[in-house]
C-alpha cells in the first residue's frame, strides 16, 4: 500500500518515500541486480522476502 504523508510524500509499507527510491535507483540498480541474481542462482531467499504485507 502507498500512503500520502504530510508534505506530499508517498510512502510504502516500509516507510521509505517513493521519491527516495526513484532518486537512488541509478546508484543502487547494479547492487540490487547482483543480490537478485545471486538469490536466483543459489535458490536462497531471505525469509523477509517471503512475507506479504
Textual characterization of the structure:
With 53 residues, the protein is mainly alpha-helical. The chain has one domain (3-44). Helices cover 47% and strands 8% of the residues. The chain contains one helix and two strands; from the N terminus they run ββα. Strands 1-2 form a two-stranded antiparallel sheet. A hairpin with a 5-residue loop joins β1 (3-4) and β2. The longest helix is centred in the middle third of the chain and has 25 residues, at 18-42. The protein is flat, with a radius of gyration of 14 Å. The model has no long low-confidence stretch (mean pLDDT 85).
Number of strands: 2
Radius of gyration computed on alpha carbons: 14 Å
Count of helical stretches:
1
Structural class: mainly alpha
Order of helices and strands: EEH
Low-confidence segments, ≥5 residues, pLDDT <50? Answer: none
Alpha carbon gap, first and last residue = 8 Å
Which geometry do the CA atoms define?
flat
Strand content: 5-15%
- Strands of the widest sheet, in order across it, are 1-2
Instruction: State the share of residues found in helices, binned by percent.
Output: 40-55%
Highlighted features:
2 strands; two-stranded antiparallel ribbon; 8% strand; 53 residues; 47% helix; mainly alpha
Q: Secondary-structure blueprint of this entry?
A:
Elements: E1 3-4, E2 10-11, H1 18-42
Antiparallel strand pairs: 1-2
Task: Give a brief outline of the structure.
This protein is mainly alpha-helical and about 55 residues long. The chain has one domain (about 5-45).
Amino acid at each position: 500500500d502507498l500512503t500520502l504523508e504530510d508534505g506530499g510524500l508517498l510512502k510504502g509499507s516500509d516507510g521509505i518515500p517513493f521519491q527516495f527510491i526513484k532518486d537512488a535507483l541509478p546508484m543502487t540498480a547494479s547492487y540490487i541486480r547482483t543480490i537478485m541474481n545471486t538469490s536466483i542462482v543459489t535458490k536462497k531467499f531471505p525469509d523477509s522476502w517471503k512475507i506479504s504485507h
